[in-house]
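Hi R.,

Here's the chain you asked about this morning:
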Amino acid sequence: MKATMVIPSYWGRRKDDGWQPMDSVYDHPTPLDEEGTLGRLLDSFSILQNTNFNCVILGVATSEDIREAVEQKLSSIIQDAKLEIPTYLYSYSQQQNIHRHLTQNGLDELNVLIQLNGYSNVRNQCVLLPHILGSDIAVLIDDDEIFEDPCFMDKAQEYIGQTVDGERILAVAGYYINPDNDFLLNRGIEPWMTYWNKIDCMNRAFRKIISKTPRVKATPFAFGGNMVIHRDLFTRVPFDPSIPRGEDIDFLINALMFGYRTYLDNQLSIKHDAPPKAYPVWRRLREDILRFVFEKKKLDAQVDISGLSRVFPEDLDPYPGEFLRGDLEEKIFRSNQMLAVELLSQDDKDGAMECLHNIALAHDNLQSKTDLFQQLLKLQKKWTNLMDYFSSDDTAREVTAACGLPRE
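And the predicted structure, written out as tokens:
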């Protein structure tokens, strides 16, 4: 099978310029005047025994005014890496060429699906590009990782597309090895987490799925930075741009609704060594709240439709299932109350107020009348139209040539 590895790389303004209010928010975009982690990842390609794949680097900028500089920066990093693996840059210039092609062919309504803004949109480009390059599988990797297993690409392709226990595997999730060489989250538990036991919940899930046999098994969680997806799945099911983050598990849920399970391979690991997040704890908590509320509302809105499968929180236990039940709002209320008290004891009144805002945001979003399930169905229909259009070899060759990408 032909494989394309796609690596998003997020970049922000120069360090002295800092983040501006209108800039996009990502976990740790690299300032333009720093080297970042991409070069480190590309250097680790040298350990891979199987180099029979293409690689595409996605250049993502936090603001429109630095897009050209980001493209120049990434071009330089790729050139300096001197890789034997064919490696290409895809960024805003190439995206513009695809938009122009769709517009010229009367399909400009599909341009909204091709955007380098927001985690889900970026992930959708991670599978669109392998599709138009004629690949059977997309290998999703993040630029803050390091290859340490020479057999990674062999393992990544070993089970994808195969039938196990009567079910064809179209999505394989790997997992992360942390800098301490453990896959568990070795972080301290704070008192405010009494009602927000996310770390404990994730570790219970990791022990259950990663550390036990068999090697490949159905999983309720996935890591977007170590994921292998077959074209028979990624041409049918998209990442949902409506979710602010947590797009990897949300994709897993979407796939389940359309009848596709995700499997975890407990031998498919990669070192994950990310820069620290600079955001305050109340904001990181808010990000989790918004994703869990979104996913709960999508589950709650399901109706029986022929050809689709109902997904329940229990199907996603222990993580994220424990955060998708009827007590989610109570968890949010109690944990933010406790965190607000803690922040007040530290004389952080603004942070305490943001905790109260977290409670209000959760309540408002839970009460929203938006039907996220029907919204997903509309998105999926539009996505399949886009992917079917690019299934034409002639169309794909025209687009890849315009973008400076290979098409066999």
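Residues 3-276+377-402 form a domain with the Spore Coat Polysaccharide Biosynthesis Protein SpsA; Chain A fold (CATH 3.90.550.10).

Let me know if you need anything else.
M.
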